[in-house]
Amino acid sequence: MTYIVVTLAYISILIAIIIYKSRSVKTQDDFVVAGRNVPVYLLVGTLVCTWIGSGSLFGSAGLSFRSGFSELWFSLGAWIGIVIVYFIAARVRKISEYTLTDLLEKRYGRSARLLGTITVIISYLVIAGYQFKGGGRLINIITDGAINPEMGTIIACIVIISFTALAGMVSIVSIDIFNGLIMILAMILTLPFAISSFGGWDNVVSTINAVNPTHLSMFEGHDALWAFGIMLPTLILLLSESSIYQKFSSAKNEKAAKKAVIGMFIGVVAIESLMCVLAVVGYAIYSSDPRFFLESGAINGAMSEEVILRIGYEQVPVFIGSLLFAAAVAIILSTGNTFLMVASTNLARDVYQLYVNPSASPILMVKVQQFLIVIIGLLALLLMTQFTTILEMLFISYSMIGSSLAPVLLASFFWKRVTKEGGIASIASGMLSVLIISITNRVMLAKGLSGSFVGLQFPFDEDYIAIPSLAVSLLSLVLVSYLTKPSPEEVWRPFFQKD
Asked: Which residues, at least 6 apart from 110, have a Cβ–Cβ distance to it below 8 Å?
């Protein structure tokens, strides 16, 4: 009961903040980029919370349970991406567009913007969907099974949609500073209590060594290709993360955007490292628990993704567990808010405003976007039913948006020779390659078939899906750019201004 009370109390506090902040939403700038006046400390909080979502709490935790410390290769991709983003954050803020697709149009034209919008919406539907799935699992655990995961997912969907539609980006950046702090505090406190509950670190190590000693290595029996394969999706996603670019546009100024990236790096590295260690400790704790393993002895993928919340509910004192569940609420709400917000912004600006009602007033645009948030949220809920685990959803969505958009975005800021046609070819080929591989894989698995298709062996391990899709996207970008006329200087010049 304590877990439910603390969780509901935290949600109530966030609701109160959002209702208060919603009164300040007067224009589209307020709703979409928080009035372009977000200070560094708030920007740090919201950038950390953008990245740390159900993908980390469930997907990465499940990967850590399955692969041990070698999961850190997965997280390392994001850390490298943040370092690269540091060098373009100020330039993104200086250009001062609303969204990533605005940048695409500025560099590659309207067709690139439309393709980018399609990619963002498809990918973000999946990402928003697994926030709902994560929320459903959380509700199922804290109610001790009284509410099943399916009903919990619907409740989480309603709550996240309501939060996002009420005040947009203003609400997101306002609550994320609290969310970020509670995430870090919860992980720092939970880890030592979890280790202590199992008899200390030596007992954790000896248990893992007895069951699966490779869990304590950085490769866990895998080769360098595996490490590269799981690192690539997080790297290319972070480099093309539309919500991060949108939040750069909400920064107070260019210097604030750049400083916030440093804070983001520290926060993300700290939280993801603690989550990884906590999940590995969970592997020791639950190494003989039949709930976490199938009859064949293989790890139960869906159950392994709950390891951190199970530790909070079953292994640590109630006051620590309650704090962890409040942090889980923060993680799920914040990320769900952000991805619904960005997808709706793209639809509102890139489809409705461009093709349906170019003269729409700022107030009408806010109302249209609020309506779209509801529609996108419901579509994400339906799409989520097609997947079993959050990790599966994570690899596909990360690879699609990263392969489609990371190459063209980096080329915008670092390669003057890239052309409009090259950018369009890169976006289209990256998106289509992920779709073709994923659909082919599902069809062949469903029919029990195997064989070679488009040069790949199927069934295809989706841990590696980013490799072929990124290769296709990069090849299209370079070849088509060299075969077409260079862009005029006035097109590329804004992307090469000094910070």
From this structure: 354
